């Protein structure tokens, strides 16, 4: 049986640098990429469709 996994997720934070430090130093996660989106690109990235899921 396959183990469940998460591909990606988004979390809003008030201080991005502190959040990255916490997730890296405390939780041991690795920052793979960091970039800035314009307002239009952000709206496209977030989308307005329904929440969907698919089996692993």
From TrEMBL:
Pfam families: Glyoxalase (PF00903). GO terms for molecular function: dioxygenase activity. Residues 5-56 form the VOC domain. InterPro entries: Glyas_Bleomycin-R_OHBP_Dase, Glyas_Fos-R_dOase_dom, VOC_core. Signal peptide: none annotated. It comes from Haladaptatus paucihalophilus DX253. Coiled coil: none annotated. The keyword Oxidoreductase applies. It comes from the Archaea. This is Glyoxalase/bleomycin resistance protein/dioxygenase. Keywords: Dioxygenase, Oxidoreductase.
């Amino acid at each position: 049986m396959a183990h469940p996994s998460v591909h990606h997720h988004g979390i809003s934070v008030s201080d991005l640098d502190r959040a990255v430090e916490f997730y890296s130093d405390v939780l041991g996660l690795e920052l793979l990429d960091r970039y800035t989106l314009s307002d239009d690109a952000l709206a496209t990235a977030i989308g307005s469709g329904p929440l969907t899921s698919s089996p692993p």
